[in-house]
Amino acid sequence: MSYDSPTPRPARAPRGHPSSFARHVPDPAAAEPLRGGASPRARTGHHRDLRILRRAYRRQRRVTTFVVLGCFTLFLGLTAGCPSLMERPVTGGLPTGLVVALAQIPATWLAVLVYERTARRYVDPLAHRVNRSVPWAGGEQERNR
User: Fold this and answer.
1) Contacts of 144 by beta carbon, 8 Å cutoff, 6+ apart
2) Three-state DSSP state, 22
3) Cα–Cα distance measured from residue 76 to residue 79, given in angstroms and rounded to the nearest whole number
4) Each residue of 24-43: pLDDT tens digit?
5) In the chain, where do the E strands start and end?
6) Are 109 and 32 in contact (CB under 8 A)?
7) To the nearest whole number, what is the mean pLDDT of the chain?
8) 60, 119 contact by CB (below 8 A)
9) d(CA 82, CA 50)
10) Maximal C-alpha separation, the chain
11) pLDDT tens digits for 73-120?
12) Whole-prediction pTM value?
């Protein structure tokens, strides 16, 4: 899954080159005017990358939270709504309620592992791209250490 637009980004100047600190300003004459004569805002650059990073991180948090809370809510709902089901023995005399309660521990660990994997696969590359696009973030400061 890619969060980039299909249009290629312009080539960047080498780090430390004076033109690498200049921002690309779109030509307002080339842009098609909006209703009322307003010009469209550019959806590129550092702010776009930050929006994409925030959206990916927010989606990741929501999915993980809903999965873990959904398992716990299901357990609570079954406990309150179907106590006879939760008292039935499953295997070895363990009641269903205890098995479902203990199943939440591996479900939580699985959610944490999936969270870390998706962070490494999708969110971390976006964060690295945002970090590289800011000249003062990690560039010269880390070289001086």
Assistant:
1) none
2) coil
3) 5
4) 555 555 555 555 555 455 55
5) none
6) no
7) 75
8) yes
9) 47
10) 77
11) 999 999 999 999 999 998 888 999 999 999 999 988 998 998 899 889
12) 0.53
**Predicted pLDDT at 129:** 83
DSSP state of 5: -
User: Cα separation of 15 and 121, whole Å?
Assistant: 26
Amino acid at 144: N
Q: How far apart are CA 110 and CA 68, in angstroms?
A: 9
* Rounded-to-integer distance, Cα 30 and Cα 8, Å: 18
Query: Which residues, in sequence order, are bridge partners of residue 95?
Result: 89
CB 75 within 8 A of CB 101: yes
Angstrom CA distances, 20 to 5, 117, 127, stand at 22, 33, 19
Which pLDDT score is estimated for 20? 47
Residue type, 64: T
Instruction: Give residue-wise pLDDT tens across range 119-138.
Output: 898 888 888 888 887 766 55
Question: d(Cα 45, Cα 50) in Å, to the nearest integer?
Answer: 9
Q: How many residues does the chain have?
A: 145
Token pair listed for 139: 């560039």
